[in-house]
Amino acid sequence: MPPPRTQGKALRQRLAELRGPGVPAKALDARALAALAANPGCSRRAILDGAGVNKAALAGALGSPSAFGQSQFALTRGNAFEAKVKADGGAELLRLVHEKLDRGAEPPAGASVPDLSAAGPEGRAARTALALREATAAAGTWTLLDHPMLALDVAGSPAFLEPDAVVVHPDGRWTVVEIKSFPMLDGSADPAKVGAAARQAAVYVLALEEVAARLDPAPVVRHRVLLVCPKDFSNLPTASAVDVRKQRAVTGRQLARLTRVQDIADALPEGTCFSPELPTAELTSAVESVPATYAPECLSACELAFHCRTRSREAGAVTALGRSVRAELGGLTTVEDVLAAARGETGDPEDPAVAALRRAARLRAEALGQEAAPCR
């Protein structure tokens, strides 16, 4: 068996071939990882994200462009709000951390803000790990890490993640800070947006735990993160502590279940390439060579969702109706199978899903004054 370094080099070369000649890799972020963990059975997304393929460009080349992502206005507004929160050495940010998470500590009259610049993501990740170790050793002081770089192993391939901030408390514990531009009205925000932020923060917590595990003794990574948002309709920052233990457990379990990128790549036909510059027919064949697991939830989380939805509908797959419906139907995987079972043409009458479908068909026929199809 080749040594790990040789294996890693061969995998990187293989992933570069999948992207196409001269196509730079698109870095995975925590939002993409949270979405990937929510659908661990989708090999298509796993290999495309693992190879750093730009799925937005790929979707456009396939003729199914997606409007997925933030508008330029939202990005500009978010960057301006984040700069306001971190102004003056992060004084306001640290005040919120102290108020919401660590009232027992000394108020942060000042804090260390180490320089985390380095060459490349690997260099920045190493510099971040060093800064975290030094800050933890400097007991009794507050430290603010602005846009640190963290590395997380995902399906055998490293993903480099950049949280908005990480705070090291005077007692040596670490806290993830998420800064969002959606408002917090009367102390609460949109539950859907808070949930998405919590799943994203849980990815950062997992990555921080990998860094902490390499230190002796290992520092405590807090499972309560700080969510900072504009207060009401102003641009003033406010914050709330969010417990991400559930999201961390679910995300960690789902990421662990992901098929290794190497295994998916090895199963692809020789010469497979996902470059958007390829002819549409060739590109479509390459994408279809990797199985996908589509669900309506993908529409808010994946750039290829429209393409996969079209293919799922063409195949009559019940996954297009949602994961909950798919779970209720057991071994019935297509709409035609479901209708045939409801009409009594196929299926085992002892199967709970088949029995429920036939009962529903009888009730529908009675309501419409029709004669129910006889069961075979």
Tally of individual helices? 15
- Oligomeric organization of the protein chains: single chain
Number of strands: 7
Low-pLDDT parts are 1-5
Strands of the widest sheet, in order across it, are: 1-4-5-6-7
Any chance you could write out the topology, listing elements then pairs?
Elements: H1 4-19, H2 30-38, H3 43-51, H4 55-61, H5 72-85, H6 87-101, H7 120-137, E1 143-146, E2 150-154, E3 157-161, E4 165-168, E5 174-179, H8 191-213, E6 224-230, E7 237-243, H9 245-257, H10 261-267, H11 280-288, H12 305-314, H13 323-328, H14 335-343, H15 352-367
What are the defining features of this structure?
376 residues, 3 domains, 5-stranded mixed sheet, two-stranded antiparallel sheet, 7 strands, disordered N terminus
